[in-house]
Design brief:
Elements (H helix, E strand, L loop, with lengths): L8 H11 L21 E3 L22 E2 L6 E20 L8 E6 L6 H4 L6 E4 L7 E4 L8 E8 L9 E12 L11 H10 L14
Antiparallel strand pairs: 1-3, 2-8, 3-6, 3-7, 3-8, 4-5, 4-7
Pfam families: PITH
Organism: Crucibulum laeve
Protein name: PITH domain-containing protein
Length: about 210
């Protein structure tokens, strides 16, 4: 008999309740667990890129951050463990003039660096407001419907010599890849079945701040 039965069914209920408690993981469709954290790469950054990929309950923690190095530009490449359909980008940046002026998102561009990124057209871009909270930026889902990796480009700060990022995450839907991405030719059939697994993705979505 598992030891957690020892104080009666009340304890068991707590265990059960905990499974439905979303305060630690945040919004139901937060993609934190589907980010391939060990392969996140930050260019012109003071630390490993993965330090800004945090679980929801650490989103406001300012003890770990990424700061740009030689100047105020930074690139963060974020691979996912499957195919994702993105609805929102979540960012905590700053403070003040260290806030990036904007962020440019590039879908499925895996090796962009500072030399070639200016020649590419971003999939979407946003101006970033200063603030201590996590900002949510609504993505054009049609343009981010089959994403295996995302590159974020922060071209300039709002006046400081460096840019600082505390937290990066995404809201969306994840689909498992049946095969390794290199065998893309054989994936067309398999993915149809995958899509049926995605249920309840519309409605009942609240912003992270609520």
């Amino acid at each position: 008999m598992p030891h957690h039965h020892h104080d009666g069914c009340g304890h068991e209920e707590n265990d059960h309740d905990h499974e439905h408690d979303s305060s630690d993981i945040g919004p139901r469709d937060n993609l934190f667990i589907h980010i391939d954290r060990s392969n996140v790469v930050a260019l012109n950054a003071s630390q490993e890129g993965s330090v800004v990929i945090k679980p929801w309950h650490e989103r406001l923690d300012e003890s770990k951050s990424l700061e740009s190095d030689a100047d105020d530009q930074m690139i963060i490449r974020i691979p996912f463990t499957g195919s994702v359909r993105l609805r929102s980008l979540l960012l905590k940046t700053g403070p003040l003039d260290q806030t990036p002026a904007k962020v440019l998102l590039f879908s499925n561009e895996t090796n962009l660096d500072f030399d070639d990124i200016s020649d590419k057209t971003s999939t979407q871009e946003f101006n970033i407001a200063q603030g201590r909270e996590v900002g949510e930026y609504a993505l054009k889902t049609a343009k981010f419907s089959n994403v295996s990796s995302l590159t974020l480009f922060f071209p300039a700060s709002q006046g400081a010599e460096t840019t600082q990022i505390y937290y990066v995450s995404f809201i969306g839907d994840w689909t498992e890849r049946n095969t390794k991405p290199v065998i893309a030719v054989y994936e067309a059939q398999a993915n149809l079945a995958d899509h049926e697994k995605i249920q309840g993705t519309d409605g009942a979505f609240s912003t992270p701040q609520s």
